[in-house]
Specification:
The chain contains 11 helices and no strands. By secondary structure, the protein is mainly alpha-helical. The protein has one domain. The longest helix is centred in the last third of the chain and has 36 residues.
Length: about 210
């Protein structure tokens, strides 16, 4: 059910807004990245009339939940650091945190905005910021901007797409497309990393032995 945002929102009925807010909160920094945040926001915007909710209410609740999720992630990172993670864990893998830390080190505060649009990275960048003792005031400003662009932006996009009959009639296909587009940066990064590693091994193999 969690992987099908349309079914999830319809099954929640009057609790749709609360469920959406909870999922956004958890995925934004509370250690569980495998939730349909992007597709859920777009679908909620698309179905807002069916759900009996205004686009503004959905957007505001999603924005607040996203900000609070990042705040929680920062606190957990600052308070517990890497102690929550283990190399062989099913969810809290050290590798996930290390990827987020590398992303954060490369992009700085902007990672809080850019990372919003990348699954898994979205969850762990606030933890990486807290772990590295990134200045809180600066974190808070980037957090607000990232949450605004992501939560409000995707909700509004969904509401606009709802006016297109072909989209409204194929919400399940839209959800799959959104997930695929969201995961694309991770796949590209992974393939690039493997390519660089292979080239490195080839150079080591070809290097003359002393």
């Amino acid at each position: 059910m969690l992987l099908d945002p349309e079914t999830l929102l319809n099954d929640l009925g009057p609790w749709a807004l609360a469920g959406l807010s909870l999922i956004v909160f958890i995925e934004s920094g509370v250690l569980f990245p495998f939730l349909p945040g992007d597709s859920l926001l777009v679908t909620a915007g698309l179905l807002h009339e069916q759900l009996g909710l205004s686009v503004a209410i959905i957007a505001v609740c999603a924005f607040v939940a996203a900000v609070l999720g990042d705040q929680t992630g920062y606190y957990l990172g600052h308070r517990f650091g890497r102690r929550l993670f283990k190399p062989d864990a099913r969810i809290l893998k050290t590798a996930h945190l290390e990827q987020a830390e590398a992303f954060f080190a490369k992009h700085g505060g902007k990672a809080l905005v850019l990372g919003r649009f990348v699954p898994i990275v979205r969850t762990y960048v606030p933890l990486a910021a807290g772990t590295s003792n990134y200045r809180y005031r600066t974190f808070f400003v980037w957090n607000l901007l990232g949450a605004l662009l992501w939560a409000v932006g995707l909700t509004v996009v969904g509401s606009l797409l709802g006016g297109l009959p072909i989209v409204a009639e194929n919400i399940d296909v839209l959800a799959v497309v959104i997930v695929a587009v969201s995961v694309l940066p991770i796949l590209i990064h992974g393939l690039y990393g493997r390519s660089v590693a292979r080239r490195g091994r080839r150079r080591e193999t070809r290097a003359p032995q002393g």
